[in-house]
């Protein structure tokens, strides 16, 4: 399977004195993702503005899913169909300086619709298999569910070494109204979780180690209902090699009982070819031991995944315009499905794809 991905971004940034109501920047983007089985169109807009002592950032996005849903040969209750789903989301972040080196952040978010292609696919599977079972005990638990989520976060940011070191702590809470999973046995139909509540706390520190070396470290602890606590960490190190070459590295891992482990590594070289043009080459490797199901009674979790990708990109910037073009080739390999997951073979399918990205921006 090959995928074509196109992103176009227009950034408009006006001086504060020329912008109405304190508006400083306005960004609009369009992304198109195409493959043999689905297409995803994403449109988003983001703005920043100043109101008194507060800096506000507002974002809005619209996602359109079109999926060619295909069942396996042994799925006698499902049928091939074309799915169309739309998702809307909005978020607001407010920041205010408390002292010269300390700031406070607060944010709200809301999403109406599914958050991923996978969620749409699974919702269709359960709808086809359980909606027709009227008269079966427990069928009253089935409902054609509308997914949504809302969240809130707050945090503080401390510049403990001016211009050299920053530390931040962020606490967030998300309530995700998920489309539940179902299973049937001799006692009738049973339903999975309807609501997943997730609380996370993250610690981040960024440091200028030398004139040519910068680092970033992050630790996140996440507690999701019906699951064990997940721990995730990440370390990034950027090094300036000579006058025109930057080497960027990032490594991270996550773990959750009873059996989830994931890790990744990416590295990139960026070369400033001219005063306005830079080229970069990036490689990334990711693998995990397979997802832990958090919404369903029986497993629909993805099997173990191994992904490798390489990206070649070009950046251009002058006083008024910026542009970016990138090409990515990626190989994703899932472990073979077992008897509990065989119905989802067309969801967890090996995928080799290419990614084209284009972005353009303008500053006034």
What does this structure look like?
By secondary structure, this protein is mainly β. About 5% of the residues lie in helices and about 65% in strands. It is built from 1 helix and 19 strands. The strands form 2 sheets. The protein has a 17-stranded mixed beta barrel. Strand 12 and strand 13 form a beta hairpin. The protein is globular, with a radius of gyration of 23 Å. The N terminus is likely disordered. It comes from Pelagicoccus mobilis. Keywords: Signal.
Helix content: under 10%
First-last Cα distance: 42 Å
Topology pattern, helix = H, strand = E: EEEEEEHEEEEEEEEEEEEE
The largest pleated sheet is described as: 17 strands, mixed, barrel
| Average pLDDT, all residues | 84
List the total number of helices. Answer: 1
Sequence stretches where pLDDT stays below 50 over 5 or more residues:
1-18, 294-298
Q: Radius of gyration from the CA trace? A: 23 Å
Question: Which key terms come to mind for this protein?
Answer:
364 residues; 1 helix; 17-stranded mixed barrel; two-stranded antiparallel sheet; single chain; mainly beta; 4% helix
Write the layout of secondary structure elements.
Layout (H helix, E strand, L loop, with lengths): L3 E10 L9 E12 L3 E14 L2 E16 L11 E19 L2 E11 L4 H14 L17 E14 L3 E13 L4 E4 L2 E4 L3 E16 L2 E12 L5 E12 L3 E12 L3 E13 L4 E12 L16 E13 L3 E14 L16 E13 L1
Parallel strand pairs: 1-19
Antiparallel strand pairs: 1-2, 2-3, 3-4, 4-5, 5-6, 6-7, 7-8, 8-11, 9-10, 11-12, 12-13, 13-14, 14-15, 15-16, 16-17, 17-18, 18-19
